[in-house]
Amino acid sequence: MLATDSDPIVAIATAPGRGGIGVVRISCGRAGDGAATALMQALCGQMLVARHASYVPFLDAGGNALDRGIALNFPAPHSYTGEHVLELQGHGGPIVLQLVLQRCLEAGKPFGLRLAEPGEFTRRAFLNDKLDLAQAEAVADLIEASTEAAARSAGRSLEGAFSRAIHALVDDVIGLRMLVEATLDFPEEEIDFLEAADARGKLAHIRERLADVLGDARQGALLREGLSVVLAGQPNVGKSSLLNALAGAELAIVTPIAGTTRDKVTQTIQIEGIPLHIIDTAGLRETEDEVERIGIARTWGEIERADVVLHLLDARAGVTGEDTAIAARFPGGVPVVRVLNKTDLTEMAPSVNRLSINGDADVCEVRLSAKKSEGIDLLRAELLRIAGWQAGTESVYLARERHLIALRAAQEHLALAAGHAEQGNHALDLFAEELRLAQEALNSITGEFTSDDLLGVIFSRFCIGK
Ligand code: GDP
Ligand code: ZN
User: By its UniProt entry, which PROSITE patterns does this protein fall under (predicted)?
Assistant: First the structure.
């Protein structure tokens, strides 16, 4: 049978492994109160008072207690999913939770109770208007947040701060659209529309606000996704040592034998709450060693996908012919920081220098000592600058790439609308159409008129039981 959004579903909601408590959650779907009543009788041997904590046994088919714990009964629509929900909070052992889960499936079989898919409870919450799409995504982002700043901004999105900003924009666009559409319906009044209604002024105001929201969302996306930073350079220049200095711990193997870092090591560190996924790579050099060659090929793959490349050099040798050859292969468009390492072995002091190479691209050079941990702060600051990070995360909403794309699309449509407005009243219908498209882009963020495919993509990435 095909799984549908109205099936009764059950899942273990707590993380796998052992814990103080473990939660099994049931959302009754179309089976509703009838199923809930039958399940309460079968599992707890009694009816549970709505929204009260009841300390009860969890019974097997023979009436023996599998566990004892707190059971909660949330009749629709006052539950997480908006459906009739039952929650059994027992002991957090993997076997006992499996037993309770199996017992639920057995007792719920007459109603078609099945295991929930990843994110299915939250998908229901969205479909039943408990959360909008941006808030539903914030649930997963809060669970997955890798830094405190990311968790706090996911919390703000879950509370609806991001959705409210989007709704305020949509309201303004709708207001303007209504003015225009009314004018289109009464062509004789078109003459002074743009002037009289101050359509241009209103549009300019909306565009400013949208730019602000996009700025905050961009910061939020940075908090969520982080930045992938690749350490590249010849063997022995100190890539692994720099990773350790940035992370403040001994992670990668540091040895004086050239070519020891064959496989990539990724370590996520944070700078001001932004996750930096730092990838240590095999040293780039000509080699006969087959295994090393594979590592080097992989390194180039990492470099192609990086947000930032740190090109490490030995400060004593300076920029060698090999380094120039390596730099020439860096893909255009990826920011590169040239790091002169091992300043402690030279007369150089840690510093940041902006170089203009061949008169065009700006290259930033940071001089530091990974081993002595001198100048590491300069590099951190440079990474934040490249990331486009503005200090202060108070008003940032945790946003996703999907949201940024929609905001940019809205921005483009409003820019086109502004262009039509410049052409006067005869382009009013085009003006109106761009406003409509901008509104559609904004609505896709909170999930009004969303396709099933998009929902599938978003919710399949959740954990089970959420
Ligand atoms: P990789 O091959 O580029 O990863 O280089 P490693 O990090 O393994 O370092 C190679 C050698 O250089 C090791 O002996 C390190 O201790 C040494 N080294 C790395 N950074 C520095 C530094 O800043 N100063 C000094 N004096 N030695 C360093
Ligand atoms: Zn290394």
Answer: G_TRME
